[in-house]
Amino acid sequence: MVTAAILGAGKGLRLGGDTPKQFLSVGGEVILLRSLRAFTESGLCDRFYVLVPADAVDMTRGLIANASFPDNLRPRIRVMAGGESRGDTLLKLLEAMRADPGFEETVLLTHDAVRPFVTARMIADNIEAAGRYGACNTCVPAVDTVFLSADGRFIDSVPPRSTVFHAQTPQSFCAGELYRLIRSTPPEVYETLTDGCSVYTLHGRKVAMVQGSEDNIKITYAEDLQKAELIAARRKETQT
User: Fold this and answer.
1) Is the pLDDT at 69 greater than 70, yes or no?
2) pLDDT one-digit tens code per residue, 73-114
3) Is the pLDDT assigned to residue 240 strictly greater than 80?
4) Residue 118 class from Cβ within 10 Å (0-12 exposed, 13-18 middle, 19+ buried)?
5) Are the CB atoms for 168 and 140 separated by under 8 Å?
6) With left for phi above 0 and alpha for psi between -120 and 50, is residue 238 left, alpha or beta?
7) Are 69 and 32 in contact (CB under 8 A)?
8) Strand 208-211's sheet: what is its strand order?
9) Of the listed ranges 109-113, 135-139, 163-167, 235-239, the one predicted with least confidence
10) 72 falls in which pLDDT band (50, 70, 90)?
11) Bond before 170 cis per omega within 30 degrees
12) How many CA atoms, within 13 angstroms, populate the side-chain half-sphere of residue 153?
């Protein structure tokens, strides 16, 4: 069983304006719907969760109801409220999934709602790697030199660029194992972690890397929205 979770529970206001960025449009489609559609159209996922702010649940259900998703998929899409943090959202997701048949063996793909250009190839690679290794993260090699600084004022060290990668999503896991690792992590420690892969590394588990893409951007600021429009236009041209 493969479950895809679109994580869009953040306020998403760094872009400016009153509308959370996951509910803005790129290429004529709401960003969150575009991200969800990548997974539904891949034909590789059995269930879909969409996690949004509590006050946006009804609106999101309406958006999905009015979108052109196949009728056979609609009953498999569940919209629910996320948490105050990424960790809270992930735990709420897993608690909800425990009622699903085959939870222990389910491969769970977690994806940022504001990364609307994930591809079927990345989704397939995540499913394969998570099934084989237990956890994986989509990554791209760092292009720029990276400095490490403990105080934010002076450079402490310069890691070899060949060892530095930028994390993207999907991040994917064996759902049962992820849930057990989270539950065995002290709450005060778990609250400091920023993603599911951090739980694995904290417990000394290996996390495989899956090749991402420079197009798989996270829309955070206004310039990202402009870049996303260009990517959407280029993809539309290649499809026609």
Assistant:
1) yes
2) 999 999 999 999 999 999 999 999 999 999 999 999 999 999
3) no
4) buried
5) yes
6) alpha
7) no
8) 77-81, 47-52, 2-7, 107-112, 165-174, 135-141, 208-211
9) 235-239
10) very high
11) yes
12) 1
The per-residue pLDDT for 15 is 64
Q: What are phi and psi of 148, to 5 degrees?
A: -110, 135
pLDDT tens readout for residues 128-154:
999 999 999 999 999 999 999 999 999
| 201-215 burial code (b ≥16 CB/10 A, e <16) | eeeeeebbbbebeeb
SS3 54: helix
DSSP H/E element including 62: helix 57-66
Q: How many helices (H) and strands (E) does the chain have?
A: 8, 9
Beta bridge partners of 107: 2, 174
The 3-class secondary structure across 121-185, one letter per residue, is HHHHHHHHHHHHHCEEEEEEECCCCCCECCCCCCCCECCCHHHCEEEEEEEEEEHHHHHHHHHCC
How many CA atoms does the CB half-sphere of 72 hold within 13 Å? 5
- C-beta separation of 125 from 131 below 8 A: no
- Which residues touch 105 (CB under 8 Å, ≥6 apart)? 1, 174, 175, 176
Nearest to 210 by CA among 169, 238, 159: 169
Indicate the helix (H) or strand (E) that contains 233: helix 222-239
CA–CA separation, 65 vs 169, rounded Å? 26
pTM over 0.90: yes
174-199 mean pLDDT: 95
Region 2-233: CATH code: 3.90.550.10
